[in-house]
Structures are given as structure tokens and as C-alpha cells.
Amino acid sequence: MPELPEVEALAQFLRAHAVGAVIGRVDVAALSVLKTFDPPISALPGRDVSGAARFGKHLGIRCGEEDGLWLITHLSRAGWLRWIDNPSPTPPKPGKGPLALRVHLFAPDGGTPAFDLTEAGTKKRLAVWLVRTPAEVPGIAKLGPDALDITEPVLAELLSKTSQRVKTALTDQSVLAGIGNAYSDEILHVAKLSPFATANKLGAEEVATLHAAMRSTLTDAVARSVGQDAARLKGEKRSGMRVHARTGMPCPVCGDTVREVSFAERSFQYCPTCQTGGKILADRRMSRLLK
After folding, report:
1. Distance from C-alpha of 258 to C-alpha of 272, rounded to nearest angstrom
2. How many angstroms separate the CA atoms of 124 and 131, rounded?
3. Could you give the residue numbers annotated as active site?
4. What are 122-152's pLDDT values in tens digits?
5. At what angle do helices 204-225 and 152-160 cross, to 10 degrees?
6. Hey, is 117 helix, strand or coil?
7. CA 38 centroid distance within chain
8. Would you say the pTM of this structure is higher than 0.90?
9. Is 27 in contact with 97 (CB distance < 8 Å)?
10. End-to-end distance of the chain based on CA atoms, in angstroms?
11. Do the Cβ atoms of 54 and 61 come closer than 8 Å?
12. Chain-centre distance of CA 123, in angstroms?
């Protein structure tokens, strides 16, 4: 799933490549992707692209100025944005392939690029809203403070109010906006904290360490991602991971084997030596298999 660093990089990519262009035809290849009907998607053609922004893990494109509309997307687990310099003039056939939405542009230099919103796999969760203000999107209205901007005292206050595991608290968008499964693994590894630690039982020193780890991990990831071509961002994300998606590989810090805990649709990774005092956390999937 694209998280804060990748969505921030996509927003900056669109600022550099799409702002100043005029929206042309909008092709909807998957009707289920549209979560709003007023304003209609037909209100977009002819509007200038005047900005791009990130709201947690949501990507927003401002269309127009004072009476502008916002095209907002949440890319979910398997969605992505693809930039196309020379798109086909033929409208795509609905329901064919991963394409969900294509926005054609008339660029200031005379080019006619487009960007696609695509989603791989059979579970279609990518969502698009066309709204007058970003706060009309339910997920944005419920966002907590942004993970890249939050101060240590505010983080301490938020964690003190929840008895969730710290892994869960970091990925709860109503608590903290922008962090998902992958970067929470990385942050907790840098902070040397167990994913199963209880959020409101963390000491002041642990919260300070967690805040510093969150800042450094996200800032470094944004720095690696910004300036990358949109097509290369996924590879850049994978290449920078220390424990996430590296089950069975050696920890780059201590050399211990990276372990995994699996759930119904996802898993997370951690290093026992660095994070849990050598303890192997219970893997529910393996526990069921051994019964």
C-alpha cells in the first residue's frame, strides 16, 4: 500500500508535471471506483490543474481556483498512479484490465499526457471522490495529526489515550495520519520497540525514541522518493526496507533472522534481538497449523 512517503512523492510529481495543464477527457473504466456523484465527473474537463496535495495516505488534485474542485483518491493496497506521455486516444473498455480512471491533459508545452489510476488484483478497493473541499471525504475528515508534522508532546498525549498495541496505534489513521503496515515495521525496528507493546504503557524515553525514529524513517523515505519517476517509486520503497517484507533474511543491524506475524490478509515483520529481547512473537497462522 502506498503510504506517506510515496503519496507525498506522487503529489510532488504531479505539482511538477500536471499543474498548469488543462483537463481534457476523463475516462472512467471502473464505475465502482467513483464514491461521489455530485459534482459529477463531467465537471472536470476544461478546468486547470492548480495544485496537488497529500492528506494522510490520500492524494488530492486541485482542479480550478476559487471555485475549484478536488479530485481525491485513496490508492488502497494495490492501487497506483501511472503517468503516460502519449496515451491512446481510444477510450478504454470498462472492466478490462487494471485501469480504473484516466485523466487526459493539455499541457502548457503543447503535449497531451494523461495519468491513470490503476489497481492490480481482484479485490477492488481503490476509491475516487470529486468534492468541493477535501474534508468532504470521510477518511480525510477523520484523520489524526500528520505523522510528518506531529511533535513529541502531541504524540505522547495521543498514545497515552489508547490501549492499542503500538503497531496498531501507528497505523490507525484516526490517531496518526500517513503510516501504514510497511513503515510502522520500519519505525518500530529503528526505535527497538516490540510491535506488541501497549501504547499507553510506553515510558517518556520510549515515546521520545519512537518520535525520533518516526521522523528519521519518514524523512529519509520522502527524500529517497521525491524526484523519482512515478513508475520507480514502488521499487524505491522496497529497496529501503530493513525488516518489512524481509522474513527469513538477516537483520541489517544485528544479523538475527527477521521474523513474521501473519493475520488474515496481511503480515508484519520484526527482529527479535533488536525489538523483543529475543522473544518470538506468537504467529496466529502458525498456531492454527500446529493445533
Report:
1. 7
2. 21
3. 2-3, 57, 266
4. 788 999 999 999 999 999 999 999 999 999 9
5. 120
6. strand
7. 26
8. yes
9. no
10. 32
11. no
12. 17
